[in-house]
User: Fold this.
Amino acid sequence: ELKVEQNPLFLSMQEGKNYTIYCNYSTTSDRLYWYRQDPGKSLESLFVLLSNGAVKQEGRLMASLDTKARLSTLHITAAVHDLSATYFCAVDPNYGGATNKLIFGTGTLLAVQP
Amino acid sequence: NAGVTQTPKFRVLKTGQSMTLLCAQDMNHEYMYWYRQDPGMGLRLIHYSVGEGTTAKGEVPDGYNVSRLKKQNFLLGLESAAPSQTSVYFCASGFVTHLPGLASDTQYFGPGTRLTVL
Assistant:
């Protein structure tokens, strides 16, 4: 059974600081997704990572995937208040061919303080 | 395009009542999904569909039924609601490319339905 673990579960950081959210998963997969959810809202797609070594960046967020370590990271650079949200990683458990049946992590609640 | 829409947005049921949640998408996606989101547990897949007329079970299917009579609609039914089904329900749609090495699209989520079962 595929398990997806995120840490930390809660992150309070100051504006301007850098930090990393980690997403570990328990079985082989080569498809990993990052989503953002604002309070009371739906999920918004941030990144799709489809191969070992994949790195994608959008603004102050950068995501990477290491399929051998079964690890993805979401790095936040010079945080701003607008980044405050819950961030989820999700993994497709089928290696080598997508099923798109995603298994989600429990989420990381990010609070950026002024 | 409206994307993915869900009806209703909020609902309160009594134990044992039944209801149907409607999801509609206008992106011509083959795949549709129903998730539930509970505090501290992320999203869990209830049922999904890979095309019109097909459905399959996800991680937590018990107590729910689904139907996909039209490509653009995916219905989630609760036949006899229980307090344990109090949750926020999200519908999503997407497509999958099965050729190795090609990009697999992400899923697009609806706004959610907040269901309380008393």
